[in-house]
Amino acid sequence: MAPWHKGLSALTLLPDQIRKVRNEGPVPLGLHLVLMSQGAGLETDLLAGALRGIDRWRTHPFTRPNSDTKVHRDVGSSRLLDYGGKGRPVLLVPSLVNPFYILDLLPGNSLVAYLRERGLRPFLVDWGVPGPVEQGFTLADYIERMTELGRGLKADFGAAPDLLGYCMGGTLALAAALLEPETFSSLSLLAAPWDFHKDGDLHRALALASLPLLPIITAAGMAPPFFAQSFFAALSPRASLEKFAAFSEFASDGEQASLFVALEDWVNGGASLAGPMAVEVLRDWYCLNLPGQGLWSVAGKRLSPGDLNLPCFAAVPMADRIVPPSGALGLAGRLKVQKLVRPEAGHVGMIVGRQGKKTLWKPLADWLLKST
């Protein structure tokens, strides 16, 4: 059995010994190390492998190439990226927590590129880093910004765009569709949370434990990136331990390693969150479960999924730890979804995993092309 500290390497090098390090490691690094140590218990070989995996990721030379996209419109610190194509416009909305490019991760592993190839015209929202205006944004402000982008596409193309939201972006997209259904022609939800207490006991417990941070977030006007990362890391410490241990055994120049690096860069690449929005999510969603109780109001209107008359598609991954499947399925039931897919994948694997094209991309594109 190898001593656990044999995996430290670049994590503990003295300043004059440090190799070129491309990032600081999982955010927040200290919490990840504590959680992985606790999760490993007496499995020191596993912990050593995880530490070697973190080391390899921090020093790996791979960098995700930028996509050749044009900026269709700037609104504040946000951008609407145009991926080209000649078909009907589709407005894709990612979460506010992580960078936008999970929906366009790598050449050959890009949902938006696939939609373009199938004859649609994808536009992807890059929320950007909150500037002076966005630092005061509430959830309603972000919903209005999304709707503004939808109105712009409708005016540009003479037809309402399809609306697609992933994760938190799906919850915001549903709100936008309920508030202004005439702006959109259909709604697609990919792992969108709604009932935050349905099989979400751990999520709720972590949120309740985080409540003392609310005055600090309010005073600072923002929530730093490690706030959300700490929350998600605590949901499954064992998963982090095992994924980094597995990465320590990957071939350095292989496709599998490149995908791992691109994903970890994305996971840990989030910007600070607008303070008022972060407070609402923690308090109103995770602690009080206002959406799931039918009590969430935006712009003075109580949002009820059953009121939506747009055609709907939903994807609920069966192994999702970020958004418990039962809560997302409850939302799909309220919406009277026309097409429901249940990939045997996790929250992120559904989007970029090996089976993603077969289990999500294709049925989604097929449905969009037939929905209107």
Report on the structure:
Helix content is 45%, strand content 13%. The protein contains 15 helices and 12 strands. The strands form 3 sheets. The protein has an 8-stranded mixed sheet with strand order 1-2-4-3-5-6-11-12, sandwiched between helices. α7 packs antiparallel against α11. It is globular. It starts with 28 loop residues before the first helix and ends with a helix. Mean pLDDT is 92; it is low at 1-6 and 12-19.
Helix/sheet category: alpha/beta
Helix residue percentage = 40-55%
Question: Could you give the order of strands across the largest sheet?
Answer: 1-2-4-3-5-6-11-12
Radius of gyration based on Cα positions:
21 Å
Integer average pLDDT: 92
Q: Helical stretch count?
A: 15
The description of the largest β-sheet is: 8 strands, mixed
Reading the helices and strands in chain order gives HHEEEHEHEHEHHEHHHEHHEEEHEHH
Distance between the termini: 60 Å
Unreliable stretches (pLDDT < 50, length at least 5) are: 1-6, 12-19
- Strand percentage: 5-15%
Number of strands: 12
Globular, elongated, flat, extended or rod-shaped: what is the shape? globular
Short précis:
It contains 15 helices and 12 strands. The protein has 372 residues and is of the alpha/beta class. The chain has an 8-stranded mixed beta sheet, sandwiched between helices.
Task: Give structural attributes.
372 residues, alpha/beta, 8-stranded mixed sheet, two-stranded antiparallel sheet, 15 helices, 45% helix, 13% strand, disordered N terminus
